[in-house]
Amino acid sequence: MHEVDFFWSYWWLIFPIGAFVFGAWDRWLAYKRSRDHLELLKHYAAQGKDPPPEIMAELRGGADPNAPPQPPPGYNGAWGGYGGYWGHPRYMRRAWRGYYRWGPYWQWRSAIISGAVAAGFWWASEYSDWPGVDGPFRIVAIIMTVVAAANFLLAILFSAGSRDK
């Protein structure tokens, strides 16, 4: 196989390989940042001093340790279990992520997008001018139709049992 043919056949691999490289680079930088933070705290501990509050706020990600945690915008008490006090900000982030990950909005969004992708593959399998692609496109269309149907059923179930009542 010629080098040019190889590139034109597998050009799309640039995107997943690039995502992998940038993800690994991000993890490496996060590791170095946490290692530097630990070294700074060890330095203060070796001297027997408490780190200044500004440094501790920087290590916590800029959050003010004395400020009361704030609920996210649009909070209506639907998450429960926390009462009037949110507790540690980690629990607030978990509740915020959990609400939107499992809420009806994301289920309907997934159903619509997967249905549109399935429709696109059905259209491509019927009207494509490329020889030999109607079979693979039809297989992907069938799979995406099943995924879209499952997402549609989940959207109905999550809308019926929504926490926004």
Structure description:
The chain is mostly helical. It folds into two domains: 1-67; 103-165. Helices cover 68% and strands 0% of the residues. The longest helix has 34 residues, at 14-47. The protein starts with a helix and ends in a 5-residue tail after the last helix.
Topology (SSEs and partners):
Elements: H1 3-9, H2 14-47, H3 53-59, H4 89-102, H5 104-127, H6 134-160
Helix pairs in contact: 5-6
- Please count the beta strands (DSSP E, at least 2 residues each): 0
The global form is flat
Outline the low-pLDDT stretches. Answer: 78-88
Number of domains: 2
In terms of DSSP E residues, the strand content is under 5%
Helix percentage range: 55-70%
- Most strands sheet: none
Radius of gyration: 25 Å
Q: Separation of termini?
A: 61 Å
Q: Tally the helices: what do you get?
A: 6
Task: Sum up the structure in keywords.
6 helices; 165 residues; 2 domains; flat
Short synopsis of the structure:
Helices cover 68% and strands 0% of the residues. It is flat and about 75 Å long.
